[in-house]
Structure formats: C-alpha cells, structure tokens
Specification:
The protein is mainly β. The protein has one domain: Lipocalin. A 10-stranded antiparallel β-barrel has the order 3-4-5-6-7-8-9-10-11-12. Strands 1-2 form a two-stranded antiparallel ribbon. A hairpin with a 4-residue loop joins strand 10 and strand 11. The radius of gyration is 17 Å and the shape is elongated. It starts with a strand and ends with a strand.
Length: about 160
C-alpha cells in the first residue's frame, strides 16, 4: 500500500489500486479535439453560427467542450463534459438557458451519436476528420423525433 491521490476530491489516500492509464476508449475521443466554426440552420430556417472548442481536461481522461454563438438573434452557449465510464461514453451539456442535457455517446468509425432522452445528434466525420456534419433531432415525448437543426463544423485549429 502507498499513499497517493486516487480521487482528487478525496485528497491523499492509502491504496493498492493501480494508477489509471488512458486507453483506446479515451484516444477515440481525440477526433473531437480542436477549434471549430459551426454553421447551419434550424429546422425553421434560423441561421446558426457558433465557435466550438473541444480540449482535453487535465489528465486526458475527459473532453471539455465550450460553445458560444447565435441561433437566429439569440446568443447561446454552453459547456459539455464527455468521458468514459466503464465500456460506455457519456456526455453532459449545460446550456446558457440553465438546461442540463445528458446523453450516451456512441462512436462507430466516422460516425458519432449522442443519444439523450429528448435530444439526439448524429455526426459524420468527413475530410479526414476536419469536418463534422451534424444532424440534430428533438422529441417532446421521447418517442416521436423530428429534425431540429443541421450544422457543419469545420476545424480551424
């Protein structure tokens, strides 16, 4: 047993646990890392323009996504945390209107799917990962889904 930080919120602890190591599950999130310009339209035709940044949190186990811009005439933004929990990916997005959106994230080759209770998004990576083509859907009841917005994110850095 040795004393070391096992859980930041707990400080130093006696443990015989191995030090966590990033693996291929974490590496798969690397396709998101970078600065992106996001342009598109809502299903009703309102223009969307945002600046999105995806970066590794300290330690490289989680991705922090910040987004700021406009949908129509409304200023919007939010912060998303994406991480691995066991064999699954999870996302929590906190938006500028006080909403919290929790999703399961699936990664399948060049396709990523955020699947939430009332919102979902399918992203197709193109141009060697420099472009994300995203189709967002929403549901009032969790059963019937309709397109809410289509956007294209282009990596700038």
């Amino acid at each position: 047993m040795s004393e070391r930080v096992v859980n930041v919120a707990a400080g130093m602890q006696e443990t015989d646990q191995a030090v966590p190591v990033r693996d291929e599950r974490h590496e798969a999130l690397g396709v998101l890392i970078g600065n992106w310009i996001n342009e598109g339209r809502t299903a009703g035709g309102a223009p969307i323009l945002t600046s999105d940044v995806y970066e590794w949190a300290l330690g490289g186990f989680f991705v922090v996504h910040t987004a700021f811009g406009r949908i129509g005439d409304t200023g919007v933004g939010g912060i998303e945390m994406i991480g691995v929990d066991g064999d699954a990916y999870f996302s929590t997005f906190y938006d500028s209107f006080g909403n919290v959106h929790r999703s399961r994230l699936e990664i399948d080759g060049d396709e990523l799917r955020w699947i939430g209770e009332r919102t979902r998004c399918t992203v197709t990576l193109a141009d060697g990962g420099a472009t994300q083509i995203a189709r967002h859907e929403a549901s009032a009841d969790g059963v019937s889904w309709s397109r809410s917005m289509d956007v294209t994110l282009r990596k700038t850095a």
